[in-house]
Amino acid sequence: GLPHPSLCVSCPDFETAAKAILPHKSYIYASGSANAGLSLKTNLDDWQRIQFRPRVMRNVGDVDTRRAMLGHSSLYPFYIAPMGTLGAIHPGAEPEMVRGAIAKGVHMVVSTASTKSAQEIMQSFADEQRGLSDQSPTQLFYQYYMPVDRTKAIELMHIVKKCGYKGLWITVDAPVLGKRTKDRALQAEEALAVGMEEERSAEWEVGGENAFAPAMGGRAVTGQLSPHTTWDDLAWIRKVWNGSIVLKGIQCAEDAKLAHEYGIDGILLSNHGGRQLHTAPSALMTLCEIRTYCPEIIGKMEIFVDGGLRDGSDVLKALCLGATAVGVGRPFMYALGAYGAKGVERCVDVLVEELAIGMRLLGVTALDQLKPDMVNATKLLND
Ligand code: FNR
């Protein structure tokens, strides 16, 4: 049976619980990665390859984990990363995740490839907030694939704005869908079971976040992922969208610099949870690269990172090196799958406890005291 949620004391426990209860196909979808899985592996490994340089005897009685994000205050330096097709993970889909987020006041980025529509998700957010005597500080942001068709793009931006999402997070690391090996194997297996050979449809090339999206009740984003978008399209969006824009999936210093030149509010260093390019760099590696080649952009724009963060101490490392805040993906997905909104709440508690303990052991009482000299990255950078 499923362990009581209080027995989940660290992020990996949610995966164990979810794996035990989710349909195989759903677990494959959540846990999957590209090709031989090395981008995912490096995401998990790299955080463990840098060490802290703690300071002691600094009166760490009270600690404050607050950190502003794109002009919105936040109780925590982390948010729930956008993940498509939550209906394959929990029958309550995105509204269930939103409920958990609101209960803890954590921000969330909603995926274009969601099971429910942008309007339905915002409606559930508003209904939930209305039921509270005190408003939750939770804000919803919108993850967006830039459609090449500008009429369609304007339409979508209009919906996002009208719903009240707080900013556009444009995913730029997916001109095509990565090769999701486990999904592919499973699909081929299913095709064979009904006496067919897998037919490679165009959807594999420019399909949704996962090829099963329609079958699992997801919103196919076919026709939205576009191999044709360029920085010119971004310049156009920058002109027509008057809210904040974050580019999700920046993977080298040159593009980080370009994003700054294009007047973008923030960049999210990410390799899409290891689901896109095989042997892409971890966000930590890209962050170190930016520190070396264009340190001047740090502090001029917000820098987010995601991928493989599984412990509050990983979050602290990212912040030491200049990250504004971090995205956490799969742990929240597994928590949702195993326990619904209660699991999402529990996952926030786990991360916050680790953050608060880590801050005290590191000798800081507020996140703005985290500095690059509080980590030692020689091992990561020298081999
Ligand atoms: C994702 N991610 C993602 N990103 C995005 O921009 N749009 C999307 O629809 C999705 N969908 C999605 C589904 C699933 C199942 C996963 C695991 C991931 C990527 C996500 O936003 C984030 O970059 C990574 O999940 C972060 O890595 P961790 O925390 O999962 O290791």
UniProtKB/TrEMBL annotation:
Keyword Coiled coil among UniProt keywords: no
Span of domain FMN hydroxy acid dehydrogenase: 3-380
Cofactor(s) listed in the protein's UniProt record: FMN
Domain of life, source organism: Eukaryota
Keywords: Heme, Iron, Metal-binding, Oxidoreductase
GO molecular function: heme binding; metal ion binding; oxidoreductase activity
Family under the similarity heading: Belongs to the cytochrome b5 family.
Name of the protein this chain belongs to: Uncharacterized protein
Lineage, top ranks: Eukaryota, Fungi, Dikarya, Ascomycota, Pezizomycotina
